[in-house]
Each structure stands twice: as C-alpha cells, then as structure tokens.
TrEMBL record:
Section of the entire sequence shown: 240 to 478 of 687
Organism: Onychostoma macrolepis
Family to which the UniProt record says this protein belongs: Belongs to the DEAD box helicase family.
Domain named DEAD-box RNA helicase Q: residues: 26-54
UniProt motif (Q motif) ranges: 26-54
Protein name (database record): RNA helicase
Domain Helicase ATP-binding stretches: 57-232
Length: 239
C-alpha cells in the first residue's frame, strides 16, 4: 500500500509487484500530449486535479484496471471519462461507429446517466458520439441513434440489457467498460443485468469501477469483472 496525502493505493495483483505510478499534481502532467483534452480543461477553468483524479489518471492511462473509491462530488466522472477518450482514440483496431460503441458507462439512475452525458459533451473529444440509454426514455429514439452509429454509451443496466436481449445493440465492440457507482447499482438490484451485459463484452477490455463505499457486494463485483486492478481510495476507509 502506498500513501500520498490521504490518497491510498492498493495493488490487487497477486504475486509480481507492480510499480504504482505517482499521482499527477497538474492537468499537464496527465494530458500534455493530448492538446484537445487540455483545451477543454482550460476552457472550463478547473485549477487542479481532485485527489481521485490525480491518482487515477496515471494508472488508467497505463491501461490498468481501476477501482476508485471516493465520496460523491469528488470528480470521479472525469477520472474515467478523460482517459476513456484517449483509449478510444488509440485503439489499435479501427472500429466503425456503426459496428457498435467502444466505451460503455453503466450507472444506476437516469439522472446520473444524463449528468455523465452532459460531462461527456462538455469535454467532447475527436467528435466521439455519445448516447444516453435509460428506462423511461424513448426506446425507439434510442434504438434509432444506436443504429445510426455511436461511440460512447452511458446506460442504466435495465434498459441496456433489454436492447441487448433484443439484439438491438452490439456490445462486442466495447473495449473500455466503466461500472459507475457500483454500490448503488447493487443496492438497486442490478447485478443480474450487469452480469448479462458483461457476458457480451470482450474479456480483453479495460474495466474501471467507482463506488462511494466498499462493501462485500462491490468486492465480489470487482473480483468477477476486473483484472488485476489497482485500487485508489481517498480519505479514510476501514479495511
Ligand atoms: P462524483 O462522480 O465523484 O460524485 P463528479 O464527477 O460528478 O463527482 O464531480 C462533481 C463536480 O466537481 C462536478 O460539477 C465536476 O464538474 C466538478 N469537478 C470535477 N473535476 C474537478 C476539478 N479538477 N476541479 C474542480 N471541479 C471539478
Ligand atoms: Mg459519480
């Protein structure tokens, strides 16, 4: 375990010891090579990365799976969105948006899905097209957008599983998967849908998980769906 100013990192890979990257103190340290991303951050006017961002970015940019535990309002969305954009841009195999999305964010509620999509559009990068898929939303309209081609899907598990079962969306093109607010998704009973969704996603994907807490159910999810993750948590956590 490594500690930097109340940011803790655990390496959950057994055996071989990996080097935990140092946290970045500035946006430049993480994104200097990606001017499009820097421009967006400068435009929004943020001063410095939040603790979870400063430690998550260098880990995720290396392609390592990540569990990020921090309270609500600590900037977890950008901790996975910005490296996600870069991942999408650097995919070795070219994907066409009509084949299916490259990035999927699963989140518990419609409100969160819409908020994440707003962030996604605010920082939009390389013209990636995003869509929000949630229960109660216009199903026909969602299907139409998926068919016309999409890069990033932000979804609640129920509706996405519905589209998947009816073969209205292809999940096999996804290489970057985020389980956002995993504790709340479990509390809402979404585990069966999450399981079915992930069955269709390629095993060599990169997977990230965020949560405000670290109960047994979330640990079980992490064990099932993440591969040798590093875990970053901010503040105190009784482990
Ligand atoms: P969480 O997912 O951890 O609950 P969010 O990602 O929704 O938190 O972020 C909460 C708020 O903080 C958002 O309004 C977001 O725009 C803002 N924010 C994110 N990163 C930074 C930063 N580096 N500096 C200042 N504000 C930020
Ligand atoms: Mg969040």
């Amino acid at each position: 375990r490594k500690e930097n100013n109340n940011i803790f990192v655990d390496d959950l890979k057994d055996g071989e010891k990996r080097t935990i990257p140092n946290p970045v103190c500035t946006f430049e340290e993480a994104f200097a090579h990606y001017p499009g991303i820097m421009e967006n951050i400068v435009r929004v006017g943020f001063k410095k990365p939040t603790p979870i961002q400063s430690q998550a970015w260098p880990i995720v940019l290396k392609g390592t799976d990540l569990i990020g535990i921090a309270q609500t309002g600590t900037g977890k969305t950008l901790s996975y969105l910005l490296p996600g954009f870069i991942h999408m841009d650097q995919q070795p195999v070219k994907r066409d948006k009509r084949d299916g999305p490259g990035m999927l964010v699963l989140t518990p509620t419609r409100e969160l899905a819409l908020q994440i999509e707003t962030e996604c559009n605010k920082y939009s990068y390389k013209g990636f097209k995003s869509i929000c898929i949630y229960g109660g939303g216009d199903r026909k309209a969602q299907i139409k957008v998926v068919t016309s081609g999409v890069d990033i899907v932000i979804a609640t598990p129920g509706r996405l599983n519905d589209l998947q079962m009816n073969e209205l969306i292809n999940l096999r093109s996804i290489t970057y998967l985020v389980l956002d607010e995993a504790d709340r998704m479990l509390d809402m009973g979404f585990e069966p849908q999450i399981m079915k969704i992930i069955l269709d996603i390629r095993p060599d994907r990169q997977t990230l998980m965020t949560s405000a807490t670290w109960p047994t159910g979330v640990r079980r999810l992490a064990k099932s769906y993440l591969k040798d993750p590093m875990m970053v948590y901010v503040g105190t956590l009784d482990l």
